[in-house]
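thought: user wants a sequence for this fold. calling inverse folding tool.
action: design(structure=
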């Protein structure tokens, strides 16, 4: 599967932004999906995950209550709604797909979209 992320940009602290990831292929609904991010000089970290049917969701502690992951299997798309953005949320955001646990290790990665939050 190929993943194409989009929707990043430059926003101010407190703003909202939604990033999207479109997947190719007909088996999107078979994958658990997730978002990761990597800030300059830091390792890539888990942000959020959603199960294949959209029933289960999980979030990193740093984004709980501010970010929301969702998916539309009819559109082969997963979304990350980010509210109350902070400068420390600045990173390249990557979407990922996994047959198993997203947190344990995705099988596929998208190319990333830059999110920059100014103070």
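)
observation: tool returned 119 residues.
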């Amino acid at each position: 599967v190929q993943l194409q992320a989009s929707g990043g940009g430059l926003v101010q602290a407190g703003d909202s932004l939604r990033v999207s990831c479109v997947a190719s292929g007909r088996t999107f609904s078979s994958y658990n999906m997730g978002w990761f991010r990597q800030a300059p000089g830091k390792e890539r970290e888990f942000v959020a995950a959603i199960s294949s049917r959209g029933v289960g969701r999980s979030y990193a502690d740093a984004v709980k209550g501010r970010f929301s992951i969702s998916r539309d299997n009819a559109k082969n798309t997963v979304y990350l709604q980010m509210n109350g953005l902070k400068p420390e949320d600045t990173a390249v955001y990557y979407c990922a797909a996994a047959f198993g646990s997203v947190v344990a290790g995705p099988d596929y990665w998208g190319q990333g979209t830059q999110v920059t939050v100014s103070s």
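thought: summarizing for user.
answer: Here is the designed sequence. The mean pLDDT is 96.
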